[in-house]
Design goal:
Elements lengths: L42 H54 L16 H13 L3 H13 L7 H13 L3 H13 L6 H13 L3 H13 L7 H13 L3 H13 L6 H13 L3 H13 L7 H13 L3 H13 L6 H13 L3 H13 L6 H13 L3 H13 L6 H14 L2 H12 L7 H14 L2 H13 L6 H13 L3 H15 L11
Helix pairs in contact: 2-3, 4-5, 4-6, 5-6, 6-7, 6-8, 8-9, 8-10, 10-11, 10-12, 12-13, 12-14, 14-15, 14-16, 16-17, 16-18, 17-18, 18-19, 18-20, 20-21, 20-22, 22-23
Keywords: Repeat
Pfam families: PPR, PPR_2, PPR_3
Organism: Kalanchoe fedtschenkoi
């Protein structure tokens, strides 16, 4: 890593600008300079020059008129095209409105296939499962309808993502009843629906059913999906059972399987299992690591503060021909920033600028947080302005970094500026932001403002959690306000006895 990025020696991030430095204009050499014309000596020459000048002026006038006419025609054509596009959109939206009226007029069974299928696709993509099922019922009523494996599988996958495995089971049965034989892909989609909802017993029973059904044997994709769900639930024992089952059936893991394992082991800080999985992956002839493998490994070591190990892995992956992407640099920036290695963080930023890597919202959030941690509010604010100028919408993570930095610097007026920005934007706030706001006001001893955060949360429809009250109690305790601290403690104790979905009392 050290060989890849030349790092400055300063302890804090230097002033940084992503705008390229302006270069002095270079005078282009003239290879064939025009000779200097001598003054005309006779009246005939003078008349000839005037006539030539008038002709040049006339040609320029014609050219100017032609250019204006061309621009006028282009504007007219653009207006016509725009009106046509608007007309098409309006007609399509009017047609799609019929979709919502399932039991509408008698001609609802004669809708155009494209209209119904587009409406179904839009709802599946947006995970609007209730509306998607209504459109699917209408689809089945059409005179031209024919059962399709593809549509059923897309719906089952959507229901799995929406944690509706029972409805996915109903669709699976309907698919079979309509004459579509179950195959490995449809079984895998149903298995995924149950595993995503944590119903592993049902998912494993479907796996056993697949083994017995002809032509529906599980493949590496089936096992990879089930392994991923088990890893999300931190059920590593089930993962080992599945890997053993794969070896018995002689199903070789692929790159996706290994990347899923490496990423999960890294997030769980199970570095021994992560490294052994990586070594096993390297021993496979037809399963090479890729940039996802590299990013998962770097995130695991960098997130745990093992910077040197992260740099060593980065160098090895690069020597293996794996090129970094924007996620790689975001991981490096985040790791260096949290470790306080601002010199190396700045070197990565310069590298990204040199090789034209476009910053994402994650990149901005990482560097804004790093400069805020370093106490460099000027650079933090510059990056925030630059982020907005590039039409990137700030998130709660961005706002939390700003509030936290201002709280540590004692800049209450700056926090008020952030709140004004929120009022004029459509950023959706969460409880993490409000907890950060409570911490900032408590750190500065502004207890009236800290208590006012609870009122702000109520207006925004956000319910305080244990962290909210514990942060307030900590602020009161550190400032010797024992009565207020005890009052908050009693609220926490009573809240623990209540339903977690029930609204907690005001202070």
């Amino acid at each position: 890593m050290a060989s890849s990025f030349s790092a400055p020696t300063s302890n804090f991030p230097p002033a940084y600008s992503r705008r390229p430095e302006s270069k002095p204009a270079l005078s282009k050499p003239r290879l064939n300079p025009t000779p200097i014309r001598q003054q005309p000596s006779s009246s005939s020459e003078i008349k000839s020059d005037k006539l030539a000048a008038e002709r040049r002026s006339e040609r320029r006038g014609h050219d100017f008129d032609a250019e204006r006419e061309r621009q006028r025609k282009e504007e007219v054509n653009n207006m016509i095209a725009s009106k046509k596009a608007i007309s098409i959109i309006l007609r399509r939206e009017a047609t799609k409105a019929v979709i919502e009226k399932k039991r509408g007029p008698t001609n609802s069974k004669k809708l155009l296939p494209r209209t119904v299928l587009e409406a179904l696709h839009e709802r599946i993509t947006a995970l609007r499962w209730e509306s998607a099922l209504q459109v699917f019922e209408l689809l089945r009523e059409q005179l031209w309808y024919k059962p399709s494996h593809g549509i059923y599988i897309k719906l089952i996958v959507m229901l799995g993502k929406c944690k509706q495995p029972e409805k996915a089971q109903v669709l699976f049965q309907a698919m079979i009843e309509e004459g579509c034989e179950a195959n490995s892909e449809s079984y895998t989609a149903l298995l995924s629906a149950y595993s995503r909802s944590g119903q592993f017993n049902k998912a494993f029973s479907i796996l056993e059913e697949m083994k017995k059904a002809p032509g529906c044997h599980p493949d590496v994709y089936t096992y990879s999906i089930l392994i991923k769900s088990c890893l999300h639930a931190f059920d590593f024992d089930k993962v080992q059972t599945l890997l053993s089952d794969m070896r018995t059936l002689r199903i070789k893991p692929n790159t996706i399987t290994y990347n899923t394992l490496i990423d999960a082991y890294g997030k769980a800080r199970r570095f021994a299992e992560m490294e052994s999985t990586l070594l096993e992956m390297l021993r496979m002839r037809d399963c090479e690591p890729d940039v996802w493998t590299m990013n998962s490994t770097l995130r695991a070591f960098g997130g745990s503060g093992q910077i040197e190990t992260m740099e060593t892995c980065y160098a090895k992956f690069q020597s293996a021909g794996i090129q970094p992407n924007i996620k790689t640099f975001n991981i490096l920036l985040d790791s260096y920033g949290k470790a306080g290695k601002y010199d190396k963080m700045s070197a990565v930023m310069e590298y990204m600028q040199k090789y034209h890597f476009s910053w994402t919202i994650v990149t901005y959030n990482v560097v804004i947080d790093a400069f805020g941690r370093a106490g460099d509010l000027k650079q933090m604010e510059y990056l925030f302005r630059l982020m907005r100028s590039e039409k990137l919408k700030p998130s709660c993570v961005t706002l939390c970094s700003l509030v936290s930095a201002y709280g540590h610097a004692g800049k209450a007026e700056k926090i008020e500026g952030v709140l004004r920005f929120i009022e004029n934007s459509d950023v959706t706030l969460d409880v993490v932001f409000f907890n950060c706001l409570v911490d900032a006001y408590g750190r500065m001893g502004l207890f009236v403002e800290m208590k006012g955060v609870l009122e702000l949360m109520e207006r925004k429809g956000c319910i305080p959690d244990k962290v909210t009250y514990r942060t307030m109690m900590k602020a009161y305790t550190l400032n010797g306000m024992t009565g207020h601290a005890n009052s908050i403690r009693s609220i926490i104790e009573s809240a623990e006895e209540r339903n977690p979905h029930q609204r907690k009392p005001d202070v």
